[in-house]
Amino acid sequence: MQRNLVQQTFVREHINDDVRDLALKAARYPDVDMADALVQIKGYQAIKQKVPAWYACESLQFPPTLSLEQSSSEA
Question: Which one has a higher pLDDT value, 24 or 54?
Answer without folding.
Answer: 24
